[in-house]
Write a structure and sequence with these properties.
The protein is α/β, with parallel strands linked by helices. It has four domains: 5-165, Rossmann fold; 182-330, 3-Layer(aba) Sandwich (Rossmann fold), CATH 3.40.50; 360-507, 3-Layer(aba) Sandwich (Rossmann fold), CATH 3.40.50.2000; 521-675, Glycogen Phosphorylase B (Rossmann fold). It contains 22 helices and 24 strands. Strand 17, helix 16 (470-478) and strand 18 form a beta-alpha-beta unit. Helix 1 crosses helix 11 and helix 6 packs across helix 9 (300-312). It is elongated and about 105 Å long. The two termini are 35 Å apart. 42% of the residues are buried.
């Protein structure tokens, strides 16, 4: 049978009967009753001499690794993943492993189980790290309410949708076991676990009640606590089954941790097996069973008093034991049922996407029909649709602005009805909203319900404070955010303050098309001007709007004032009318270099569609270094400036070296098409929306 599910244990966990710790016991107990055990592989690090608890185990041996062990361990699993192509990966208690695998963009569902305080674990300590996890993990379980609360400290409530408490559990006994006069302690024999408290209190009890015995099951190399009495025995660490047998015959169990226990398995198990269990109030211990005997003061005297009290009152001791035995609140059957139900649901919902399948795509955007396609060369909608088609997807374009203009439509209901009628006829797999959010929630819900279509939205304008109309733009795309499957924006999404979940926000570069950005300006020997720039004032009207002004003109004025020897070709500025389509290209072709300057404050990855018109047409282009395009291009492909003075200095250095300029221009064009062409961008939109494996390596992720 094909293995569909992988369980990745912490590398320090030993999946053996004699060394199993909390996560290993959890997995073992779950698999023993799971209907999915034959479809599951457990991964861990185990000596070849050791026998795993269950048969479905795969060893990730890192015994020869001396440093960065968890990284090496997780990397080994990643290589194996590609062999098995698991549909579900369940990771226990190592956020570092989870984050590593998330960033590898595996085509699977991630389940993560926290067994410890999230704030103590690498890649989970900060709020931003935990937000990343909750945004990129399909389901998160916590072993107690206390652990869950630690995870959500500082996080908004809305992040809790895919998070639940799922307590460790046990198979309760059918018959109350025969009890002996035994007091038991299980765990690390150190002060953090309160072993010193147990030892000192128990010695006094044994001196007073000489027919009682005490057992300490555990070990600790770092601390030495010596407690000697003829009725006091240290049994070192035992296999889990043997520990359970000790719980069966013990009368009193003590879990007096100073440490904030994430849960406290020993408390749950000993209580379920009929022990009168005494616990501290640390961490999740109160959640382990119903009738806790709480040790409020963590000292030997307080513990001695509680033990003495229930030993003297035998009826009370038996009553507590029976209450614990008959009121088990964490049954293993519930845990198994819960996990199996979730995994079955994930397996059923796996998208069986065949890469060569032709998706049917309805692209709703501005295709500029009313202006006779005057803006064809800068139309992102046009380029993306061509990318869909060249990737073998059947694609229909609906130019909503042109429809409204042609029929003088002002009532949005008419437009929504029109689009719904198209959907009924065409039945698309994917609807792409290009630079718009014009559909009503009712229309989207109807389409999703009836046709199971996905919705993606791309947007090319500012969405961050400091950019023009940023808040209005953000308000626009946030409409229907709960219904849109994925968003694609031309700004790095991290700084965008939005109610849209981060897992749905993706950066999308401005695409280039081989038939549109088809110039090789670096081959033109007749360029007589040094620097090109064009403002887009009047883009929708074809001529300069006199009253329009923005901060780019301040930059340009400063540039011109400080220049004494370079020639500029600046359109849409100082009375110079804008140019469009091939007239625009003729103006670029007059110049040796170009400036990419966008409206508003420079921000990470944001650029207008000007960047493709320049770099992808083969002209050496300068961009503000704060835009961080150095993440994608080096100085042999693009110029990066700090301010006006720095820009002029760089132009000066290149001014007399046309060969250098041409080389940078050629390299920039080649690089742009290799990483930002419209086939890659279109593929990216489809892959992210349908959660499928990448066909290309997306350099921006």
């Amino acid at each position: 049978m094909k293995k569909k599910i992988a369980i990745l244990l912490p590398y320090k966990e030993k999946y053996t009967s004699d060394e199993a710790a909390a996560a290993s016991i959890w997995v073992k107990d779950y698999l023993n009753g799971s209907c999915l055990k034959n479809e599951t592989l457990v991964f861990g690090d185990l000596s070849k001499k050791k026998k795993p608890i269950t048969k479905n185990f795969k060893n990730l041996d890192i015994s020869k690794i001396n440093f960065r062990k968890n990284y090496s361990y997780t990397r080994k699993f990643y290589k194996i993943f590609n062999k098995y192509d698991f549909e579900i990966v369940e990771i226990h208690n190592r956020p570092e492993s989870l984050v590593y695998l998330i960033k590898k963009k595996l085509n699977c569902k991630f389940i993560f189980v926290y067994h410890n305080n999230p704030q103590d674990l690498r890649y989970s300590k900060t709020v931003s790290e935990r937000i990343f996890i909750v945004n990129n993990c399909h389901q998160i379980y916590f072993v107690s309410k206390w652990v869950m609360n630690k995870f959500f400290e500082g996080l908004p409530f809305e992040y809790k949708n895919n998070c639940e408490i799922l307590y460790p559990a046990i198979k309760s006994l059918n018959k109350f076991p025969k009890k002996e006069k035994i007091i038991i302690f299980t765990g690390k024999l150190n002060s953090s676990k309160g072993y010193d408290i147990f030892g000192k209190a128990t010695l006094k009890i044994l001196n007073k009640f000489n027919d009682w015995k005490a057992y300490a099951i555990g070990n600790e190399r770092r601390e030495v606590h010596s407690f000697k009495h003829k009725n006091y025995k240290i049994l070192s660490w035992l296999p889990h089954d043997q520990i359970l047998n000790f719980y069966k015959k013990s009368s009193i169990s003590v879990v007096c941790s100073r440490w904030q226990e994430p849960f406290g398995r020993t408390a749950m198990e000993s209580a379920a097996f009929g022990c009168a269990t005494i616990t501290s109030d640390r961490g999740g211990l109160k959640e382990t069973f119903k009738t806790n005997l709480i040790l409020n003061k963590l000292n030997p005297s307080s513990l001695e008093k509680i033990i003495k009290k229930i030993i003297v009152d035998n009826k009370k001791l038996k009553l507590i034991q029976y209450k614990n035995f008959t009121n088990v609140i964490h049954e293993i059957d519930f845990l198994i049922e819960k996990m199996d139900k979730l995994k079955k649901n994930f397996l059923q919902k796996k998208i069986n996407y065949i890469r060569n399948k032709n998706l049917k795509i309805l692209h709703i955007g501005n295709f500029d029909e009313k202006n006779d396609h005057r803006l064809f060369n800068i139309s992102i909608a046009n380029k993306i649709s061509k990318g869909f088609i060249r990737n073998s997807h059947d694609t229909i374009n609906f130019s909503y602005r042109d429809f409204n203009s042609k029929f003088l439509i002002k009532n949005n209901n008419i437009l929504n009805d029109k689009i719904y009628n198209i959907v009924e006829n065409y039945k698309p797999d994917l609807l792409v909203l290009g630079h718009n959010n014009i559909l009503s929630s009712n229309t989207i819900q109807k389409v999703k319900s009836k046709f199971k279509s996905k919705f993606a939205l791309w947007y090319e304008d500012h969405l961050i404070k400091g950019g023009p109309n940023a808040q209005n733009n953000l308000n626009l795309i946030e409409k229907n955010e709960e219904l849109i499957d994925q968003y694609f924006v031309t700004t790095h999404p991290d700084p965008i303050k939005t109610k849209i979940p981060k897992k749905k926000m993706n950066f999308m570069p401005i695409p280039a098309d081989e038939n549109i950005e088809n110039l090789e300006i670096y081959n033109d020997n007749n360029r007589f001007k040094d620097l090109f720039f064009a403002l887009s004032h009047g883009v929708n009207y074809g001529k300069l709007k006199n009253k329009n002004i923005d901060d780019r003109e301040i930059f340009l004025n400063d540039l011109i004032e400080k220049n004494s020897k370079f020639t500029f070709n600046i359109l849409g500025y100082a009375g110079e009318q804008p140019k469009w389509n091939y007239q625009f290209y003729k103006e670029i072709a007059k110049c040796k270099m170009a400036l990419n300057l966008s409206r508003g404050k420079a921000m990470k990855y944001y650029s207008s569609n000007r960047i493709a018109s320049l770099v992808a047409n083969g002209i050496m282009t300068f961009i503000d270094e704060k835009v961080a395009y150095s993440d994608f291009f080096d100085t042999n492909e693009m110029g990066f400036y700090k301010n006006v003075e720095d820009l002029l200095n760089q132009i000066d250095k290149l001014h007399g070296n046309i060969n250098k300029i041409n080389q940078i221009s050629r390299n920039g064009k080649k690089r742009y098409f290799s990483i930002f062409n419209n086939l890659i961008v279109a593929d990216y939109i489809v892959n992210k929306t349908f959660n499928i494996k990448n066909k290309y390596k997306y350099i921006w992720e």
